[in-house]
Amino acid sequence: MNITLTLNGLHTTLECEPFDTLMVVLRRQGLVSVRYGSDTGETGASAVLIDGQLINTDCMLAAQADGHDVVTIESFNEPELHPIQAAFAATGAMQSGYSTPASILGTWALLQDNPSPSEDEIRDMLSGILDRETAYTKPVEAILRAAAVLRGETTEPFGPLVLTPMTDGRNPVDVDPDDPRPIASAAIPRLIPSRDVPEMFVVGKPEVKVDALRLVKGNAAFTDDFEDRGQLIGKVLRSPHAHANIIEIDDGAAVALPGVRAVLHYKNTPRIKYASGGQSWPNPHPHDQVSFDTKVRHVGDRVAAVAADTAEIADEALRLIDVTYEVLPAVFDELEAMLDGAPVIHDEDDTTEIHDRNRNIVHHIGAERGDVDVGFAEADRVFEHTYRVHQVQPVPIENHISVAWLDPDERMVVRTATQVPFHTRRMLAPLIGMEIKDVRIIKPRIGGGFGAKQEMLIEDIAAHLARATRLPVKVELNREEEFMSSRTRHPQTLTYKTGVNKDGTLVAQELRIIGNTGPYGTHAYTVQTVSGLRGLTSYNCPNKKFDCDVVYTNIPVPGAYRGYGAPQAEFALEAHMEDIAHELGMDPIEFKRKNWVVVGSELDIAPHLGERSVEEGEMEEYPKVLSSGIEECVAQGKRAAEWHRTLDPVWTTPADRPNIRRGLGFAFCMHGTAIPFLDMGGCSIKINDDGSFNMLIGATDLGTGADTVIGQIAAEVLGVRLEDIKVYSSDTDMTPFDTGAYASSTTYISGTAAKLAAEKVRVRIKERAAMLLDVEEPCTIELRDRRAWAPDGSSVSLEEIALDSLHWQDQEQIMDTASYVSPECPPPFAAQFAEVEVDVETGQVTVVKLVMAVDCGVAINPVTASGQVEGGMIQALGYAHCEEYAYDESGRMLNASLGPYKIYRADEMPETEVYLVQTMEDSGPFGAKAVAEIPKDGVAPAIRNAILHATGARIDDLPFTPERVFNALTQQG
Amino acid sequence: MPSVLAYHRPGSLNEAATLLSDPNTRAIGGGTVVVPDARIARETGVELVDLQDLGLAEVTVSGDVTSIGAMARLGDVSRDDRLPALLREVARRELPSALRNQATFGGTVALADPDSVLLAGLLAHGATVNLHDTDPVALADLLAAGVGDRIVTSVTVETAGIGSVAVTGRTPADVPIVAAVARRSNTGIALALTGVADVPVLVDPANPTQGLNPAGDFRGSAEYRLHVAAVLAARAVSEVSS
User: Which of B205, B208, B209, B212 is nearest to B184 (CA)?
Assistant: First the structure.
């Protein structure tokens, strides 16, 4: 059928099928700013303006738009940015930018009707566009600024609010209740400088992201935005059963369907064992997966895959595959899975190195320092508490997507939304029977990952289909598949046992964890190891023990999710410590402070719980904390959270709202920065004719701003502006190796590699400058303002140096490469505060405010760093408050869509404030430590402790949904 | 087989009624629920009948009675300051922005979602549903019976009095687990609840949970829903009574 519409101002006739959505038809026209997040309008990524109103195109037929006026962001496509686009860029309002076109269009429509919208009106407009990254604070700020500009007003440049330190950097202070908290827009990071940090030109500045232009314009950026002639659609048949043997697959009808190009399953795909977690070589055992197995182990597990000319034919082909299952008993709970008689989930004989196959225990992990039994015997008091944490999803708005094809040399190329291109290349090659050198992985921009994409999840399927068809094949998960077959956080049952002396000093601490890894190991060993590491590192204690079993079950597969084992452990730890403080009659912050690690503290269990764990006695010297801004964090956070109200009954029990109790909670947070001796990043830099530089990095910017931050580091070294560094990441054929975006490593590891590469290039530039300036000692030359300066004040531009070196005399390409691996893992620290209101008649908890004060060393870019904290806090808020996988008895997920699975939207966010407390971490590039994951650690325990403060109820399982809280209040009486 | 076999956009109600008399057709208002359902969930194709050209989007205010056209968008109604604040508010909070600009009143009635606070709001405002070619039906009766192949043309509500809504959800903008909407007018107090039956229901303000037998789910067990229904009913009634 044909439809006629006004498309971006042009009268247009388009051909479509009755079943085509408007999104599909617009994308077919090359309007790639219209992005897929779901089929139901639940994400808003596909929204455009229809007759001037923001409308989702994924849940609308193209035919419905016949006769209407349709506007996409491509209509703004002028060389200059529209003021709304400029405001989004300037404020860091997009991280991945996947849904930014929809937000900008919605803003345009809003401002047409209402040039001076209130914040509530802006948030209402944004309510239909889910954002997992920014916590909406910076988009709201961008829209307020854009409105002001369009009204003809001027706005101040966007940057941090610089505050005076409240402490001497080491010692606690009493916070004066009359000292007013700093007032500024929530989007503005509060920056507390350290006098140990020297003034710099590019580092520490709120530079605009290097990919801002393409993101705010909606230009082609993501995996699905590029044309592949003849591209087929790949789709996956998924198991309806939680646990079953596949007795037979009959694909005859599917193969015979016109337009079907390949049908793959266990009968025609080599059985090669692997583990899908994107990790360094060698991937931890057991390798318990194959591309297509004879057994399914969770609802949503792979059964078969098809490639067909269209999505509709592929869907029909899936329906025509006849599978005969032998349904087996299933088990979902990690404690039940360990019992005698539980179904054995991996009974195949080609999966080896399962710790105790018959009890479904895939790993046993243990570590001890000192002797906890002696410690418990010596302690004045011993406390033991058990906690249960649940299963949640990273929910990137861009689902997993891979496009695979054979290039003209018949090498396999996979353009894919991955955090780990180099691991994927190495892991994929054997599965498809090719050598690593014949596999190329291209990572374009990624629409959020958060760990879910630290996985070779579907690349093998796309590549198998591309090999079978010799045509490009796209495999893209839908939202339900993303829930059922992507990766989640590990549920755990955690028991802490702690011995304490009367004065509050810890004597012994034991953490026992039963972790649930679903049916596949992937990240099981490392996530649970990190739980032990993070759960036993925050507080000094002479005797520590970690004891952990990781268990197979039939739930959808847990894996990497931002925080990586720490959010589970730090929830339990901060709840446990809070409760001990109450039992001892001590102020919780004072009790924690008495024990938390400080500069000089030994991180004594860390080497025993690393990826290359060592035994006691093998270490001559333990790593130590070298920088900590925690006291400044606590002081700033207390003032911002108005902590003095904890003691004010008029505030906690408002007279005019008899069903409401208010509370404040605190959590101490500590994370790591990269995996020492393992995470490696590489960088190469070359100079161009105009004195600019190409920088190639294997690091994987997921929207975090990594490309920008690493570019700033290089620019600082080379004395140029950020715009002079053209950053490219990442492509396994082009860029140096990098382990990938995980473990809070990118700024620290890849950033240091960039700093080293830039320093090597700088040496060469100085040598050339010395020649041109007739200076004897090149080391006396300085680079700044795009010039090389001699001590006598004479100078030569980098352009002149480049032209001279490339074209004129002793020609050479000034270019160098460096890589970095760190022996250190400097911990960032944070103080997390939460304010809640509890409706004691219904159990509904309303989170009013979250304040996080973070010591991430030197924030290379305070805007992107604060964006990491804001986005991390909103994800952590969902973990604490409203997100959970719900199942029926057969293991089918009941809420595999956004809405029933509840993530926060713009019009319901608590107030957030971010404080960046500078410290100088000498091991990091220009003083930087990590910031990406620590915001995930403290929100759940801070809310839990705030509920405790408000109501006296201790809730030891997540999330704090109304009935769970109500039951706790009822039990408490 | 394609999921959507054909798309129709009839120009008259009679034409639409003829199309919809075929059991293989379904009507769409905004289409936000039916289109994904047809495209993804169904194994057999359907033909969709788009009602956008039938002139059903008007909102007509006549004294204390307002008629809201079946094709009126929730977003438009939420911004229509001729309507009572409570109705506008429940239209606004029914869906996030972009979906609200697509979804229609007729579609909301036809869907009969048990968690729809908008439907509870309409119930509390004495809503009557006007149908093509048949007599108007009280909304409560229509929700119980289902729309079937009839075409909703408009919803008529009484707008006098004052209203209040009380909700409990996981987050402030969550679809409430349970909601209570009360309205006080000359004829007394009307009270409607969501989350306690197969569809939103009108209940006795003096005894709001009597006879209810909700199905529990992961967001709230049956017992919890009954408890919260009683609490929220009391709050909503108290607010309109004071």
Answer: B205
CATH of B162-241, one of 3.30.240.20, 3.30.930.10, 3.40.30.10, 3.30.390.50: 3.30.390.50
What's the 3-state SS for A490-542? CCEEEEEEEEECCCCCEEEEEEEEEEECCCCCCCHHHHHHHHHHHHCCCECCC
Last residue in a domain, options A485, A516, A538: A485
Interchain CB contacts (distance < 8 Å): A and B: 147
The count of other CB atoms within 10 Å of the CB of residue A371 is 15
User: Cα–Cα distance between A216 and A93 in angstroms, integer?
Assistant: 10
**Residue among B1, B174, B217 minimizing CB distance to A882:** B174
A356's CB contacts (< 8 A; 6+ apart) are: A364
The separation between CA A879 and the C-alpha centre of its own chain, rounded to angstroms, equals 14
ipTM of this model?
0.98
Smallest Cβ–Cβ distance between A127 and the set B40, B173, B232 belongs to B173
- Which residues of chain A have a CB within 8 Å of the CB of B38? 19
Contact A905 B9 (CB under 8 A): no
**End-to-end Cα distance, chain B:** 59
Q: From A45, A76, A107, give the residue that closes a domain.
A: A76
CA-based angle A927:A928:A933, to the nearest 5? 160
Edge-to-edge strands, sheet with B162-168: B162-168, B178-185, B188-194, B201-203
Question: CATH says B65-158 is which class?
Answer: alpha beta
Which of A17, A18, A54 has its CB closest to that of B98? Answer: A54
Tell me how far apart the alpha carbons of residues B178 and B201 are, in angstroms, rounded to a whole number.
Answer: 12
Which element (helix H / strand E) includes A818?
strand A815-821
* DSSP codes of every residue in A62-75: GGGGTTSEEE-GGG
Provide the token pair at A564.
């990586």
Residues A691-749 pLDDT 10s: 999 999 999 999 999 999 999 999 999 999 999 999 999 999 999 999 998 888 999 99
Instruction: Give the span between the Cα atoms of A485 and A185, in whole angstroms.
Output: 39
Domain count along chain A: 3
What's the per-residue H, E or C state across A119-149? HHHHHHHHCCCCCCCCCCHHHHHHHHHHHHH
CATH of residue A786: 3.30.365.10
CATH of the domain at A52: 3.10.20.30
How many distinct helices (H) and strands (E) make up chain A? 24, 33
Q: How far apart are the first and last CA of chain A?
A: 66
| Collapsed DSSP state (helix, strand, coil) of residue A101 | helix
Cβ-defined contact of A128 to B97 (cutoff 8 Å): yes
SS (H, E, C) A884-933: CCCECCCCCECCCCECCECCCCHHHCCEEEEEEECCCCCCCHHHECCCCC
Amino acid at position A875, single letter:
Q
Q: Which of B7, B51, B239 to mutate to test the interface with A (most CBs of A within 10 A)?
A: B7
Query: Considering only CA atoms, which of A415, A855, A886 is closest in space to residue B217?
Result: A886
Token pair recorded at residue A820: 């970095």
Would an 8 Å CB–CB cutoff place B179 in contact with chain A?
Answer: no
The whole-model pTM stands at 0.97
Give CA torsion, residues B83, B89, B93, B94, to 10 deg. -40
Which residues lie across from A727 on neighbouring strands?
A695
Please classify residue A886 by burial: count the beta carbons closer than 10 Å to its beta carbon, then call 0-12 exposed, 13-18 middle and 19+ buried: middle
State the residue range of the domain holding A706.
680-821
pLDDT at B41 over 70: no
- Closest CA of chain A from B90, distance in Å: 14
Q: What are the tens digits of pLDDT across the range A136-164?
A: 999 999 999 999 999 999 999 999 999 99
* Residue B188 CA from chain centroid, whole number: 22
